[in-house]
Amino acid sequence: MLKQKAFMLLCSAVFMLLSQSLQADEARTSSFQVLVEGQGKAIILIPGLMSDQRVWQQLATALKPNYQLHLINLAGFAGTPALSTPVKLTEVTAELADYIRHQQLQQPVLIGHSMGAFLAFQLASSYPQLTGKLIAVDGLPYLAPVFSRDSATTVAQMAPQAKMMQQYYQQMTPAQLAASTEQGMAIQVSRPEHAAIITAMAGASDPATVGAVIAELLTTDLRSEVHKIQQPVLLLGAGGAVASEIMRPAVQALYQQQINTISQARLDFNWQARHFMMWDQPEWLLAQITDFIKE
């Protein structure tokens, strides 16, 4: 009888440990969902603010015959359920690192669009041994200079504006979020069918999450961290919404300044593509990505 009780206690303890381990695994990946497609070298694709895997659909179709794609959807964006407390990008980065370890991915290529590119820069800076090549699709280590048009802009200068913007978005309804997104569509994409997808994704996003992430992007400057990246980096700039050719050198210099400390980094601009260049210039983007991965 004593042996039986001891065995039952041991089984109970093991069950509790396994349950705690499973809960920990769930918690680690709770800030995003993943769809895996294809076979081959691993590529992690991270969408931008208020977007999901739909932005990569055309690119993924072309890549998945030769690569294993890990398509990330962040909690609170484009219909992926929001967390009770909005996601923090620093936590997403740590969970992505855990995901790479648990899936035993061997230095996966990182491809990020806009906010997703910021996450890729943060992941590659924080965990340089885990990550492979990085392709930033119109996304930067520090967002604020894009708005200020000044590379000298600091986090301290942006803090009041970030707080104000977070409060502004928190008060929105999803319908208002969609309407606000639609108003700025001219710089996002060229074709109406793609504009409709972007608007729909915004309308399915959680305004509190959007506000919190925007505030974090405006007050997190990775420029002092990206020198830690050990793999080659390709930054692709979308210049299709630049008002005139006269402005191009200044825009290009602003982007270049953000990657100057990375030992193996280059910048290429497409002056026809708008922000969602995977829709505006899909063939060009695919060629850039495949050539860079194979180099």
UniProtKB/TrEMBL annotation:
<protein>
    <submittedName>
        <fullName>Alpha/beta hydrolase</fullName>
    </submittedName>
</protein>
<feature type="domain" description="AB hydrolase-1">
    <location>
        <begin position="43"/>
        <end position="287"/>
    </location>
</feature>
<dbReference type="InterPro" id="IPR050266">
    <property type="entry name" value="AB_hydrolase_sf"/>
</dbReference>
<dbReference type="InterPro" id="IPR029058">
    <property type="entry name" value="AB_hydrolase_fold"/>
</dbReference>
<keyword id="KW-0732">Signal</keyword>
<feature type="signal peptide">
    <location>
        <begin position="1"/>
        <end position="24"/>
    </location>
</feature>
<dbReference type="GO" id="GO:0016787">
    <property type="term" value="F:hydrolase activity"/>
</dbReference>
<dbReference type="InterPro" id="IPR000073">
    <property type="entry name" value="AB_hydrolase_1"/>
</dbReference>
<dbReference type="Pfam" id="PF12697">
    <property type="entry name" value="Abhydrolase_6"/>
</dbReference>
<keyword id="KW-0378">Hydrolase</keyword>
<dbReference type="GO" id="GO:0016020">
    <property type="term" value="C:membrane"/>
</dbReference>
